[in-house]
Amino acid sequence: MKIDIITLFPEMFTELKKHSIIKKAISAKKVTINLVNLRDFSDNKHRQVDDYQYGGGKGMVLTPQPIYDAVASLKKANSKVILMSPKGQLYQQKKAYQLTQEKHLIIICGHYEGVDERVLDIVDEEISIGDYILTGGEIAAMVIVDSVTRLIDGVIESESHLQESFNNNLLDYPVYTRPENFRGKKVPEVLLSGHHENIKKWRLEQQKKQTKKKRPDLMERGMIDEK
Ligand SMILES: C[S@@+](CC[C@H](N)C(=O)[O-])C[C@H]1O[C@@H](n2cnc3c(N)ncnc32)[C@H](O)[C@@H]1O
Hints:
Layout: E1 2-7, H1 14-18, H2 20-27, E2 32-37, E3 50-51, E4 61-62, H3 64-74, E5 79-90, H4 93-99, E6 104-108, E7 125-128, H5 138-149, H6 158-162, E8 181-182, E9 185-186, H7 196-214, H8 216-220
Bound molecules: S-adenosylmethionine (SAM).
């Protein structure tokens, strides 16, 4: 998969590309992450990319011209153009899985008061990472890049993410490592038993219990097999 990110702050992504699973996925050529500086596409002699809002109001708005031209320079027949926006659909694991099926993502990061509304005409999807306001789309774009990359086939063992929170609308089960007894707090007996069936049963029970307690809204989505 290729991911182009249109941003005013390409350097914010430098560290993201240098560590952990993203770094490995880049080395293994599972993903290419290309940073595109929005200012390079400004036809303004001062490389300006923002302007005042019509109608008045505080804060600048990203003008459509550099965004249109940046997208046009990157877009292929199979590209999906995503605008990071608090007004978008709320991002969930299901969407991350869907995005792994794409060959090419173009992610536009907004800034200031946001982007000129006419940019929506060249966008396939607006995505929000939560009901709060970030300064710019960069951190939101990183959330997409990270969550999608780790789901791409061959990046990590598929068994690892099949067991993770949100599959079947359940949170993950509790995990423990050494020591067996940490300051009087013991690892549940069943996990030391070596009895695989009982461990499996206990883990599923814990998943349901924890989801009911911490995220009842997930259970209300009604996709849990209670059998
Ligand atoms: C300060 S925000 C603009 C907020 C906008 N005035 C509003 O109230 O909806 C600047 C940029 O940050 C990004 N952004 C902020 N919050 C976001 C969120 N929750 N999810 C995705 N992107 C977000 C978007 O790209 C947005 O254009």
